Protein 1
Amino acid sequence: MEAVTGTGDSRKGFTLIELMVVLTIVGVLMGIAVPQYKNSVLKAKETVLKENLFVMRRCIREFYQDKRRYPHTLEELVQEKYLNVLPVDPIAKSSQSWQAVQEEPPEEGNYNAEELGIVDVKSGAPGSSPLENRPYSEY
């Protein structure tokens, strides 16, 4: 018995128009997805930054309550076991970029600048948040 073949072209595949339509749809989807992905990554980094600052500020307060003085360095929080490690600033990608805010010197009497402790900490990351329209140093 002989196989019956259909009339016309029996090649299988996609036409150029079909491929162009599929590529256009993929391009549109990528155009929507990539900016959303970038915004979600940035939002996650800013959330981690805020959480790291919250934890370090809490540790500074606890240090003061326990020792009746502020820590002289951020590393002292690690040495005294208030923190396991100094957290990384996710925007600056460094644990050494934190900006320590020193306590105000007393108005009267002599004081040693080395005795002034850290009362607050801020991000040392350059630039501003495009999501919140404020500098990272104000977090």
Protein 2
Amino acid sequence: MDILAFLRERAGAFRCPMCRRSLADCKLRQLDHEGQKYTVEVTCRNCELAFLVALELASSDDTESSEDEEEVALVGRAEADSDPISNDELLELHRTLSEHSGPLTALLTERAND
């Protein structure tokens, strides 16, 4: 299967997370392919934002429940309507990580309890 052709056919249904324009004419570059798993770099032609898409294709023998299909659809739309991370948020994250010593899981648990 030509995964890039498959993605090109469907790219117009998605919008760039940065500039919100259609990805119909985006640049696609396959980075990795192992079995039914693909990693593709997508670059918006308008704002040049590049991001990675990880895909895993189900074989025709696999049967998915409607719950699994719904989850796949949600992953495709995940956070498409959220704003990009601001400079202040990135600086806050850097400050928090630089002041923390210990495992990341401890920091996440600590933050969840706040």
